[in-house]
Amino acid sequence: MIVFANAKINIGLRVIRERPDDFHDILSIFYPVQLTDVIEIHQSPRFEFHSYGFPVSSSEKSNLCVRAWNLLSENHTLPTVAIYLLKNIPTEAGLGGGSSDASFTLLALNEMFHLGLSQETLSNYALQLGSDCPFFIHNRPVLASGRGEVLTPLTLSLKGYYLVLIKPDYKISTAEAYSHIQARPEAENPAFIVNLPMERWKEKLVNDFEEYVFNIFPEVRIIKEKLYSEGAVYASMSGSGTSVYGIFRNEPPPMPWAKNHFYRVFLLD
Question: Potential cystine with 86: which of 38, 105, 126, 193 (Cβ 3.0-4.6 Å)?
């Protein structure tokens, strides 16, 4: 079986408070986009995992695809499989690539072996793998709250807009980014702001991680500014970085300055 595990972008990301369990409560809109990893799974005499494309930073044992298989195999009778992962989504980019891989592995195994698990059950398994993993089980625009696992569906649609996605060659771990963040309990809910005309998002929709990341990697700030100069209606860093996206009403012009980075253009659907 082959599945295509898509990325997401954060539209606004407010860190509301630090929790007693060392996580943080957030408010953010998760929006699925067409950039995908490719996962192939088939039965095998022994368990195998192979990764291609962008290098993954974790060991095989801690890879989220492997952990997803281990989690299901602990609770259900599964044959051994070989998993082949083609990484097209940059790592440590704020795009949720690893979380998506985990969730789509769960979805694929559920279908392959006719486990009959509901979305709710799969979401519960996904949450054991990562805070934002349940989003990819449902894979529709949501307001994410709690530590990212409380998902409220939204009617937001960016269909027909163009998305320019740029990932410079800088990396920052989520843990490092959170260690430098200042919680803002009074932050405005992004779900209210996206009901405004998109031209007003620039002044209202905030990613709280930008301040820290822009200070240590000024190039990331420059990319955001250049996207606005190219005509983006809204531009932002996604997640804890370091990818930056711009949303355009019309097909964006070529951006030769971006070609030294990971650089993709999508017509959103």
Answer: 38
